[in-house]
Amino acid sequence: MIIWKCVDIADNERAFLFRRNRFIRVLEPGHHRIMQLGGKTHIETYDISNVLFERTNAKFLLNTHAEKLAPYLETHELNDTQIGLLYRDGHLVDVLSPGTFLPVWKGVERVHVDIIDISEGYTVDEKLVSLLGRGTKASNSAAAKSAIHYVEVPDEHLGLLTVNGKLEQKLRPGSYGFWKCNRSIAVQLVDLRLQTLEVSGQEILTKDRVSLRINLSASYKVQDPEKAAMQLGNYAAFIYRELQLRLREAVGTQSLDALLEDKDSLNLGIARDVRAKLEQYGIEIATVGVKDIILPGDMKQILNQVVEAQKESEANLIKRREETQAMRSLHNTAKMMENNLVLMRLKELEALERVTARIDKISVYGGLEGVLNNLVKLQPSGSSQ
């Protein structure tokens, strides 16, 4: 029968001696001989370099054996309205949630816990935001992620902070952190820049029952973020629906010809109606414009035929007008030549010039006078040949 049990404890270890499941004492580094005559004994060994003392019933053990464990362990405990910042050797390493009980080994590292009361305030100090929100060891801990709501508000944006469903603060561009414990925290970002919204592929019937597919584009800007976000929620979806409805109303009350002839009046009508509605919610409509009006295939062919016929008619009209003008000019010329022999002779010489320009070789009989006087001769109206 073995009466003694030998145990070696390393420098980075501490051991708890239990006999018949009752705690007896702490074994420090070194060689120990444990007598086993008093009953069944067992030893629990802990690596104190981990600093944190992790045991299921640690709080009970520390409370019932405080005098024996006080030289080796210290405790930190938070109530339900406190947050703890855990520092080890001056470095922030973790965030402790409300109600946390944390025992640590003494003499390993300098362990310090800063306690923050969050019963009233919920804003994280600006210096802590940079430590807890930018990839540090503390910010990566599960407790920090569950305890802090971290948000960045970009330029040309505004953040609306709601606490327990109530709007509490408007956040200008920058970084912010808020304690989430014991409360609901939410931040809605509102873009204050000029934004574009497309209403595409709308199938609409005109007044004369022609089906059109219309694409509409609009630009808007949020002037009152609080009113737009709080009263509308998803204000972009609301603007889209308003544009869609106004477009259908405007197209449905006009014929196809009226729409194609004057798209500007359609744009102005939609913009006027939508602007009046959105101004109530702090949103300004800058521009509204119909980008495309797409006709069905058969209607497009018919309209092309109509346009072709119109252009052909216009071309014939211009041709007849020019012919009439030419005939009028010839008539006036003939009237002038009838009473002016010199003018008639000039026209004869012009005709002779055009004739000779087309002939490579001319044989002359009767002299040059015969060519000039007899080759081309215009007869006045009513004279004999």
Feature tags:
single chain, 385 residues, alpha+beta, Tetrahydropterin Synthase, Chain A, 4 domains, three-stranded antiparallel β-sheet, 11 helices, 36% helix, 34% strand, rod-shaped, disordered C terminus
Spatial order of strands in the largest sheet: 3-2-5
CA-based shape? rod-shaped
How far apart are the termini? 166 Å
Assign a percent range to the helix content.
25-40%
Largest sheet: 3 strands, antiparallel
Class by SSE composition = alpha+beta
Rounded to an integer, what's the Rg over CA atoms? 50 Å
| Average pLDDT figure | 83
Number of domains: 4
Tally of contiguous helical segments? 11
Percentage of residues in strands:
25-35%
The H-and-E topology, N to C, reads as EEEEEHHEEEEEHHEEEEEEEHHHHEHHH
Counted beta strands = 18
Poorly predicted tracts of residues: 381-385
